[in-house]
User: What shape does this take?
Amino acid sequence: MRIDPSRFTVGDEWAYRQSDHAPSERVRILAVEPKKNSARLEIRFLDDPDERVEKVPGSRLRVPWSEVGTFDALMANWQRIDDLSLDRTEEACVEEIFGLLISDDVAELLWSPVSCATRHPRQGPAERDHQWTGRRHPRLG
Assistant: This one.
């Protein structure tokens, strides 16, 4: 991920996340070390009793701390979507609807479960001879 080091200023407070699913933590930037396509930052964790200091990639600082409420709400919405579990039929329907409604110049669906791309040796002749057409799921024809 390309990170513009000029967006970070020593002394500013930002929301740090170890990962997308981790909670936001308030940090202060102590130093900025620009890299070719990113930045390495020395930060202090302000709500940590020991105020620990770490050097981290710039990609872990998500938004200025003043925007953390909006950012956390957005990430919580994405987490709720991610927590949903779809069966194979539902996944295929999502893929089909995406293909019908979203133009390729806007977005492209690149993910498919391994089960849709793997040929099983015990398939019968009808399944073995099935040809994929467009974005259709092999089980739905």
Notes: The beta strands are 13-16, 25-34, 39-45, 53-57, 61-64.
